[in-house]
Task: structure prediction
Amino acid sequence: MADISSDFLGIKSPNPFWLASAPPTDKKLNVLRAFEAGWGGVVWKTLGTQVKNVSSRYSAVDYHGSRVMGFNNIELISDRPLYINLREIKEVLREFPDRAMVVSLMADNTKESWHELIKQVEDTGAHGLELNFGCPHGMTERGMGAAVGQDPEIARMVVEWVMEAATIPVITKLTPNVHSVVPTGLASVQAGTNALSLINTIQSVTGIDLDTFVPNPNVAGKTAFGGYCGPAVKPIALKMLATISQNSTTSKVPVSGIGGISTWKDAVEFMLLGASNVQVCTAVMKHGFRIIEDLCEGLSYWMDDKGFKKLDDFIGKSVPTLTNWEDLDINYHIVANIDQDKCVHCGLCYIACEDTSHQSINLDYGKPYNKYTIKEEECVGCNLCQLVCPVDCCITMVEHRKGPEYLNWKDFQRLGLPLNDH
Amino acid sequence: MSISNFKLTTEEYEANFADIHPPFENLTAALVEANRCIFCYDAPCMKSCPTSIDVPKFIKQIATENIKGSAHTIFTSNIMGGGCSKVCPVEKLCEGACVYNLMEEEPIQIARLQRYSTEIAIKEKWPLFTRKPSTGKKVAVIGAGPAGLSCAHVLSREGIDVTIYEKEAKGGGLMTYGIAAYKVTPEFCEDEVNYILSLGGIDIKYNQEVGKNLSLSELKAQYDAVYLSIGVGLARQLAIPGEDLEGVVDAISFIHDIRCKGYDQVKVGDKVAVIGMGMTAIDAATQAKRLGAKEVTMLYRRTQEEMPCTQVELDIAKLDGCRIVWLAAPKEVLGEDGHVKQIVCSSMVLGEPDASGRRSPVDTGETFTLDVDMVIKAAGQMPFEALVADNQLANKYGKIVTDSNGVTNINGIFAGGDCVNGGKEVVDAVQAGKDGARGILTYLGS
Result:
């Protein structure tokens, strides 16, 4: 069996799955249940000056009959008294000393506030701190959360304040509500943060009630922009993570990956792009803590299949395959092939290609089943037909190189090769 | 042994004749199924529907919660899409062609989804169609069955004033009078007819029968065109001794009585033999059982390979406890005091293929005898041969000959449905009505 235990800046956990700072980690009751279920660690819901929340707080995007493809909240940081949170953190640490306990922080915007908060939290015995520079609503209006994370210089200043006081590892959590996460990530690393985590939620409007005309969630006939998360944001999070992994400075610190992770496969993808561990929230808000079992088992079986003994064997493995477009090999060419024995004659490949792509599929009418075949000379290898095909392995992309040698766009221009080749 | 009514309690009748294919209970249930549909292009289900309902489109419309649009899509192709969703043998039509079958998965429940949208439309009386201004042209339609109603609806939408003459007291034809009550209730049929008529421009005159109190030549003189959708009516005779004994009935009248009189008013035997293995035979056998018959035996002179009903229908009969005897041809009905007592059957074997391509049964000379007190004949229906011949309509064994637009040999007279095809599904008749309407519109120059 593969070893899935994790060591993040010396913070050890039996598996790389932490619960992200969010409602599931806002009190002892939940966190104990999570640890009993098997979670490796938690990032305790953000502590700071106590706030007041509204009702309702959540809304979701459903897609094609599936609930909560995307999730949105307008909840603020912890609305419980600080002393209770601190006491409960201490109690949980005593009951589960083998699990990671990181505490998310968002102090008021003064050095003294940060120093005071850090001291109180460190007194609990927590293993690490996560700086919430990402909350996109409610706190920004008070000059906190994303207001910090969106300005690299403010982030640098706050991280410097924190590093003056902190004696345990500090993770800076980045907001995605920026053109690029790299400037704030870079400033934070330069200011001394021990690690980064990303992404926080993305500002959103999930939808509008077509009877009341009020966007969701409805708070007495009004609403506010919320933070979007869940499976829908995963591709965006992966891209942002990759940019941190590609940067020569930010790639030097460990990264905790966050953003729509629901399955062990999602987690593996984040780790392949450089995350040392992952944090999960929406998936447990939909299904409860019990999903940890499959997260661990799926990861472990996959590592066994691939021959990986420990997490470090594959963390970051996919990063070198991400390159710039102009370095891609133009001579690489693939052509679709339809396995006629597997084809169910649904025509989805045909209509997608015919209406929106390269008219590369033949249609021979039949009753009731049409026959679809690829016009190999027309096919540009775009994958669309394969993507829409409902049958596994019915459409495959077969390699037909245009030339034996590697040829990228820069070479192509330099050699003055013709553009009109199809 | 006796033939009697009131064999069961009211509760038992209710349970036995309850909806065999229950509808989706709510939108969520319909959405789960609608979202399974992969929205095929040039879809096999659509091509397998005689009325070419755009199935992927109407299912997608349910998925987007555009139920009104979904109902409109269905009714545009098939104005009896509500009834068809309950009575169509979908296993050999749309659902039989669903691509999920090729993935060894259950096909999409197309009929049930179709029922979902159409039942809401009918219940809410959504006015999904508007009539063009009257052209002043008048067309008579003979028979308010599926073909006649379908033809009338298309014509009225185009501004033609339609009068339907119907020999029964209600519209709907075989949908109302000839189908098992556990598939479609008489109340639904009435609602469906009323919904079709709510378009306006269609007047139905009931209890009017051509050849009795109505003459085709007079109608032809009064109207710009006449559409014949008179169906088939006469039960095929077995032409065996004992056929006139009390207790020998034809399936059409048996089913007709169940639908018109109420379950407890229809007499059924304790031991019933049903002759035939078509859809009507199944409907008669299962309903005889559900009315309280102790034993029902279905006799068919060929084998399961050749049976006209679908496997799904056969399974209903088997699950109802009907016994099936293959290769059994009725030879004689024996009686006592004028009542049925026994039926003698010849044992058959399959010989060479006949004109229909099916292997024909050959008598082995051996017989067997069953004790029965009722015999239901469901060996097919005969066209109205005399009526057709008397009116000089070109025909083939009584089936009116037309082109693909319902045009007959007589100028201004059109025909379609069972009276032309000899007896097919409701959905075929609906399409025939559309084809006939197209022929009439062309003829009238509109």
